[in-house]
């Protein structure tokens, strides 16, 4: 005898299998995973490709701004610094200032370990104890301002963008100093006259002179 139940049961089973298959397919789709991030933002290879395509446009890890160099911030405590930068990228060293010796770090770049290390000067914190970040010396050309100015840029570009007026001696070398943004742009000594004054007008510096270091200070 013909029975509707014999037809409906297999049909229901098939429908259930199809529905479960659809759910399984949706659950494995990366587009439906909540809070899924874009791995390209932390992928060193992708970052290197971006830098190669746009050498004068820094990513967030290499952006220079007043008081900041990537993830570093002037006046941050040494403890906070060590939380932000992996120990494998840091090497302890020291520096001299007015006859006194203070601790410092040389910081390697995570994406390009063979790039010139940045130098981080520490100073005792008389209020909270321990040490805080006093100065940052940047030698790595990957670090640039939002305008694209950094190591390797012509001094004329920094003068035009940063409004530099005077050039004088600094702990990092002879540099154009911008008191407004608290940055100094160290000039290649080969671009300077053999004998020059301790302080010069920035207009006397050849526009094509290259920047060899960027100093962030307080």
UniProtKB/TrEMBL annotation:
Keywords: Signal. The keyword Signal applies. It comes from the Bacteria. Residues 1-30 form the signal peptide. Residues 25-45 are annotated as: Disordered. This is Uncharacterized protein. It comes from Hymenobacter telluris.
């Amino acid at each position: 005898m013909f029975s509707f139940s014999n037809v409906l049961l297999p049909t229901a089973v098939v429908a259930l299998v199809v529905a479960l298959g659809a759910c399984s397919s949706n659950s494995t789709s990366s587009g439906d995973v909540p809070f899924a991030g874009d791995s390209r933002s932390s992928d060193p290879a992708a970052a290197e490709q971006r830098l190669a395509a746009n050498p004068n446009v820094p990513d967030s890890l290499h952006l220079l701004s007043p008081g900041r160099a990537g993830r570093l911030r002037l006046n941050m405590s040494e403890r906070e610094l060590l939380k932000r930068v992996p120990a494998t990228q840091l090497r302890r060293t020291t520096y001299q200032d007015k006859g006194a010796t203070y601790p410092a770090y040389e910081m390697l770049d995570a994406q390009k370990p063979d790039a010139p290390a940045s130098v981080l000067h520490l100073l005792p914190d008389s209020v909270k104890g321990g040490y805080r970040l006093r100065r940052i010396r940047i030698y790595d050309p990957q670090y640039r301002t939002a305008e694209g100015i950094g190591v390797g840029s012509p001094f004329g570009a920094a003068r035009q963008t940063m409004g530099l007026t005077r050039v004088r001696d600094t702990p990092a070398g002879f540099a154009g100093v911008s008191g407004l943004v608290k940055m100094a742009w160290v000039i290649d000594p080969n671009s300077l006259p053999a004998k020059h004054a301790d302080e010069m007008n920035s207009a006397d510096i050849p526009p094509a002179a290259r920047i060899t270091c960027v100093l962030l200070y307080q």
